[in-house]
């Protein structure tokens, strides 16, 4: 049940009228719901139940400090891919011992910082990275907890840009090389083998590819055990999809239960790294109509938000629902391309949308809480939007709008 619902003719986030938030904080604006974040996390936590393991929220989906803090307070772990994400988790009150460090290109300095803080595990993605981690940990006179991220060569049946578990993708260690590289990990100094990890892609609506990957990982774990290498945890990654339009993804509860069932009888802790399924439908992007441009063949609603604020439609042709915040407009319904002010033909948030709108109307782009603000840029020297968190009937500013003047404060002219 969504926390974004119409009440008295206007779209609300929990108990807050979104037109009030737009008045108070200006547009474009990201709005997140604390309640929705908590509910989604709780669904994972409850489904995991007393099975040992951890839900490590994928920080890349939405790294706002208030979002991380809401999840940290619920006992979330975190999946990070950079020192920047690591520092944000710590600043938001996250527990370093509940952090897993993923990513194909970890630098030595990032490894050092993660070892200093004592992260739970490094998800190592190549033999070269394993050697570097062994060297860094040895120099620091400690042992790095490791999992190898396995590329199981499974088709996640998602957009090619966000499929990560095929042998043509840059991610992970080919499953055929896994035993050899685990043996190497066991032999190298400064490493402690903890787990097996995989992440096959994002926005998966069917769980069959997860289960295929899982079966391959379980065979690998058996083979490792036969070689005397004990695995404590299995990390199945993130990737569960959400409803943007009419997708019907497996529910969080059914997904976790299906994975748990496959593991029954084994003494393995179970880890998940969900991003989108926690934050996407906990956020909306508010934008105002600047102009309506009615051409002979095409109508455009020109808005104050753009591809630099929310790039998913431009980058992946992703469809996100666009709703007028006030239902009442007397304007005639017309078919519009909803476009921003950026100088790119690809700058659109929606195409061929039937909307009854007038200049100045407020629109909400739905399901914008994941891979929204985090992918925003300053293209066209636009400041990035503010972010607010709704808690009941209150909205708290959790990141200020970026002023366009400060954008060049760190730059120098040639002497
Ligand atoms: C290693 C890793 N873990 C977790 C995630 C989170 O994925 P999602 O937001 O689809 O749950 C990603 C992104 O796809 C990822 O690359
Ligand atoms: N940015 C992508 C998801 C990337 C997943 C990260 N590995 C999206 O918006 O759908």
UniProtKB/TrEMBL annotation:
Task: Tell me the active site.
Answer: 343 (proton donor)
Write out the residues that bind substrate: 276, 312, 316, 344, 371
Q: Which residues carry this modification: N6-(pyridoxal phosphate)lysine?
A: 60
Q: Which UniProt keywords apply?
A: Amino-acid biosynthesis, Decarboxylase, Lyase, Lysine biosynthesis, Pyridoxal phosphate
EC main class here is lyase
Q: What is its EC number?
A: 4.1.1.20
What does this protein need as cofactor? pyridoxal 5'-phosphate
Q: Report the catalytic activity.
A: meso-2,6-diaminopimelate + H(+) = L-lysine + CO2
An annotated GO BP: lysine biosynthetic process via diaminopimelate
Q: Which residues bind pyridoxal 5'-phosphate?
A: 239, 273-276, 371
> Which pathway does the UniProt entry assign to this protein?
Amino-acid biosynthesis; L-lysine biosynthesis via DAP pathway; L-lysine from DL-2,6-diaminopimelate: step 1/1
Record-level Gene Ontology MF annotations: diaminopimelate decarboxylase activity; pyridoxal phosphate binding
Orn/DAP/Arg decarboxylase 2 C-terminal domain location: 30-369
**Annotated Orn/DAP/Arg decarboxylase 2 N-terminal domain residues:** 36-280
Family recorded in the similarity comment: Belongs to the Orn/Lys/Arg decarboxylase class-II family. LysA subfamily.
Can you state the subunit structure given in the record?
Homodimer.
**Role description:** Specifically catalyzes the decarboxylation of meso-diaminopimelate (meso-DAP) to L-lysine.
**HAMAP family, per database record:** LysA (MF_02120)
The name this protein carries in UniProt is Diaminopimelate decarboxylase
Source taxonomy lineage?
Answer: Bacteria, Pseudomonadati, Pseudomonadota, Gammaproteobacteria, Oceanospirillales
